[in-house]
């Protein structure tokens, strides 16, 4: 049995308000605890998006009633809310800016719309960018021009990790995260859906799954990766198997088993997990330490990942049937057992807003 500190997942789509048929603050935080995650940072692309005081209250009210693990909520950058979100910064995890297309309505196309956010959002709170490929290069230029920290979400390409490496070498204030699905799946991975139509099907995700060369580059540059983040983005099976599958995978419950399996294979160390899932996210997002909080893992149990055993509401996983080594046995959160032997013990409302 090994003991780890509670993991922090800086990128979770809780889906509440507005799309609770996919997930809500109750099921998302159950999935977190079952995965050894004791704190989640929630993304703002809900319905409505979280972009001002009243929508922030909407999310935080639900969270306060339902969350079983600790949390903070991101604000979304819109075309005309730079003053509003800057004033709300102390109540939020940070600011999320969508600079490329994905699920939701928060995309900012024009660079003139980025400028007021970079000018006004307090520098002691992070700006997180969804920015792929050349858009990422523009985002890193903004970090340099405005001399402020940016955190790049879900890096997936070789060119991206090499660009971030070069920017760090020049002391530009950039950090980044990588998702397990971009470390363990490629565009050639067999789709777990029965559709076989050559489309993305269930494997639709943004950023898209990449080539083996890209995946190799991420593994070769582990030292450039600051955080592991799931980008837990649940959509129901019916939605994923529809004509227009929305992009996104659930990930909270498979993060730690996949990483522990990589440790078993010698691709990663336990210290890497602690650094990238606890210490670095805590520092980047200025999160207080969670006292008396730990995860007990049975490192020798081998088992098969099964959607049927998960707590997420979405009912599927891209890792169905994968054999993994390392099972979360027990999670203690602020002195209370929150999860043990497959059962959620923390009650709704036990989770605290860390802002
Ligand atoms: C996310 C979602 O469904 O909210 N989808 C995804 O494919 N990652 C949005 C996002 O993070 O881009
Ligand atoms: Zn996301």
Going by CATH, the homologous superfamily would be Metal-dependent hydrolases
**Strand order, biggest sheet?**
5-6-7-8-9-10
Annotated CATH architecture: Alpha-Beta Barrel
**Structural class assignment:** alpha/beta
SSE run: EEHEHEEHEHEHEHEHHEHHHEEEE
Number of domains: 1
The low-pLDDT segments are none
| Largest beta-sheet details | 6 strands, parallel
CATH class: Alpha Beta
Overall mean pLDDT: 96
Bound small-molecule species: N-carbamoyl-L-aspartate, zinc ion
Strands, total number: 14
Note the gap between the termini.
33 Å
Radius of gyration over C-alpha positions, nearest whole angstrom: 19 Å
Can you tell me the overall shape? globular
CATH topology: TIM Barrel
Tell me the strand percentage band.
15-25%
- Helical amount: 25-40%
Q: How many H/I helices?
A: 11
Keywords, separated by commas or semicolons:
binds zinc ion, six-stranded parallel β-sheet, 355 residues, alpha/beta, globular, 11 helices
Structure described in brief:
The chain has 355 residues and is an alpha/beta fold. The chain has helices at residues 25-34, 53-66, 82-88, 111-120, 133-146, 158-169, 180-184, 212-220, 237-240, 255-264, 270-284; strands at 2-5, 7-12, 37-42, 70-73, 75-76, 95-98, 127-130, 150-152, 174-178, 227-228, 294-304, 323-333, 336-340, 343-344.
Word description of this protein:
By secondary structure, this protein is α/β, with parallel strands linked by helices. It has a single domain (2-344), classed as Metal-dependent hydrolases (TIM Barrel, Alpha-Beta Barrel), CATH 3.20.20. The protein has eleven helices and 14 strands. It has helices at 25-34, 53-66, 82-88, 111-120, 133-146, 158-169, 180-184, 212-220, 237-240, 255-264, 270-284; strands spanning 2-5, 7-12, 37-42, 70-73, 75-76, 95-98, 127-130, 150-152, 174-178, 227-228, 294-304, 323-333, 336-340, 343-344. The strands form three sheets. Strands 5-6-7-8-9-10 form a six-stranded parallel sheet. The chain has a five-stranded antiparallel sheet with strand order 1-11-12-13-14, covered by helices on one side. Strand 3 (37-42), helix 2 and strand 4 form a beta-alpha-beta unit. Helix 5 (133-146) packs parallel to helix 6 (158-169) and helix 6 runs parallel beside helix 8. It is globular. The model has no long low-confidence stretch (mean pLDDT 96). Zinc ion (ZN) binds at residues 11, 13, 43, 231, 233.
């Amino acid at each position: 049995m090994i003991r780890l500190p509670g993991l922090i997942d800086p990128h979770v789509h809780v889906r509440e308000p507005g799309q609770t048929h996919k997930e809500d603050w109750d099921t998302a935080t159950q999935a977190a605890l079952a995965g050894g995650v004791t704190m989640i940072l929630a993304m703002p692309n809900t319905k409505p998006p979280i972009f001002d005081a009243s929508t922030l209250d909407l999310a935080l009210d639900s969270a306060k009633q339902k969350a079983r693990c600790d949390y903070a909520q991101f604000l979304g950058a819109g075309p005309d809310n730079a003053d509003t979100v800057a004033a709300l910064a102390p109540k939020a995890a940070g600011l999320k800016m969508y600079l490329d297309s994905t699920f939701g309505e928060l995309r900012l196309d024009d660079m003139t719309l980025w400028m007021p956010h970079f000018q006004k959002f307090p520098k002691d709170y992070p700006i997180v960018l969804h920015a792929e490929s050349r858009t990422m290069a523009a985002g890193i230029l903004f970090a340099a021009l405005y001399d402020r920290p940016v955190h790049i979400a879900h890096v997936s390409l070789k060119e991206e990790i090499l660009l971030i490496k070069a920017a760090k070498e020049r002391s530009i204030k950039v950090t980044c995260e990588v998702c397990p699905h971009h470390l363990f799946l490629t565009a050639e991975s067999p789709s777990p859906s029965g559709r076989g139509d050559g489309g993305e099907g269930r494997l639709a995700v943004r950023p898209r799954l990449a080539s083996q060369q890209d995946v190799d580059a991420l593994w070769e540059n582990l030292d450039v990766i600051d955080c592991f983040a799931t980008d837990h983005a649940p959509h129901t099976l019916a939605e994923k198997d529809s004509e227009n599958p929305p992009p996104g995978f659930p990930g909270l419950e498979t993060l730690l088993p996949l990483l522990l399996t990589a440790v078993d294979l010698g691709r990663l160390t336990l210290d890497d997990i602690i650094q990238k899932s606890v210490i670095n996210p805590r520092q980047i997002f200025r999160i207080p330490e969670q006292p008396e909080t730990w995860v007990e893992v049975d490192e020798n149990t081998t088992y098969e990942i099964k959607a049927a055993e998960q707590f997420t509401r979405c009912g599927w996983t891209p890792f169905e049937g994968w054999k993994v080594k390392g099972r979360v046995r027990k999670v203690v959160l602020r002195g209370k057992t929150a999860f043990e032997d497959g059962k959620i013990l923390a009650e709704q409302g036990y989770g605290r807003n860390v802002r």
